Amino acid sequence: MIHQPQSKMMGTQKNQNIMPQYTDYAEYYDQDHGGDSDIAFYLDYAKKCGSPILELACGTGRVLLPLANAGFEVHGIDLSENMLNVCRLKMKQQNLFDKIHLYRANMSNFEMERKDFTLVYIAVRSFMHIFNQKDQLACLAQVYRHLRPGGYFIVNVYAPNLRKLLQEPDAAFVVTSEYELDNGNHIIRSDRFVRNDPLLQIQYSERKFEEYDRTGRLVRQRVVPLDTRYTFRYELQLLLEKVGFHVIDIFRDYAKHPFDSTGEIIMVAVKK
Ligand SMILES: C[S@@+](CC[C@H](N)C(=O)[O-])C[C@H]1O[C@@H](n2cnc3c(N)ncnc32)[C@H](O)[C@@H]1O
């Protein structure tokens, strides 16, 4: 087992000049994400494929930890040390240090010693944080190289919503959720659409966190960019096929309903 209290950065930082960059909100992420409906889905594929499993952009370990608790050997890569630190804290609490191996790396530019993964996945739209096609292809090619023949790859993006993308730029913030942190502080989260760049296929958005203490005093306010590069269904399929994958399923949700142009695009591919 490899425990890296401060992760070593793998690979070279060749993409630093490409805008926009992902900015994390690790301190709120576990209360903030939109739900865990995908965990049973990934557990199903883990049971089908077995260990070892690799998650790219694993964040705070929301999916990795349940897989490790179910007995699988899992490896996770993420660019954000803050997100990985939240994951490490939960690994310690749940005594999972020998089941989970974490690495700090860019998913478009990672290299791991082992190339026998049975299942690689990129959950909850994280592939959309790769902002150009060259890096998307580099990521997919690396996934392909790290899988054993017959291994599975699952990637999820959202189906581009043209009505949303065509809305007026510079929209106002709209409150989307409220929740309590473990320390009792209250969070009001708001989102806003900034603009769409149809040429680069990037939707620029912002997320605002207002944190109030128990007395109702605003103790912190933070706005983070949350930009995503959207990819259409046939485009994603071609990208996967270009690096050698065979696409076997396309779902619209984690209950495995077939893709119907709305909702999610969840593509399941196999290394030939
Ligand atoms: C929405 S979170 C998803 C976290 C986790 N996969 C989950 O399902 O909860 C997106 C994650 O992608 C990571 N990320 C963004 N760009 C990345 C990159 N180029 N390489 C590796 N991780 C990246 C962020 O640090 C963040 O942890």
In short:
By secondary structure, this protein is an alpha/beta fold.
CATH superfamily of the largest domain: Vaccinia Virus protein VP39
Strand order of the largest sheet: 1-4-3-2-5-6-13-12
Could you tell me the number of beta strands? Answer: 13
Largest sheet: 8 strands, mixed
Number of helices, where a helix is a run of at least 4 consecutive DSSP H or I residues: 7
Radius of gyration: 19 Å
Helix and strand composition category: alpha/beta
Unreliable residue stretches: 1-9, 11-18
Head-to-tail CA distance between termini: 30 Å
The SSE string, one letter per element, is: EHHEHEHEEHEHEEEEEHEE
- The CATH level-2 architecture of the largest domain is identified as 3-Layer(aba) Sandwich
Q: Domains counted in the coordinates: how many?
A: 2
As a percent range, the share of helical residues equals: 10-25%
Principal-axis shape: globular
Could you outline the blueprint of secondary structure elements for this entry?
Elements: E1 9-10, H1 26-32, H2 39-49, E2 53-56, H3 64-69, E3 74-78, H4 81-93, E4 100-105, E5 117-122, H5 133-146, E6 147-158, H6 162-165, E7 174-180, E8 186-197, E9 202-212, E10 218-225, E11 228-229, H7 233-242, E12 245-251, E13 264-271
Parallel strand pairs: 1-4, 2-3, 2-5, 3-4, 5-6
Antiparallel strand pairs: 6-13, 7-8, 8-9, 9-10, 9-11, 12-13
Structure description:
The structure is a single chain. The chain is of the alpha/beta class. The protein folds into two domains: 193 residues, Vaccinia Virus protein VP39 (Rossmann fold), CATH 3.40.50; 67 residues. The protein is built from seven helices and 13 strands. The chain has an eight-stranded mixed β-sheet, with helices on both faces. It is globular and about 55 Å long. The two termini are 30 Å apart. It binds S-adenosylmethionine.
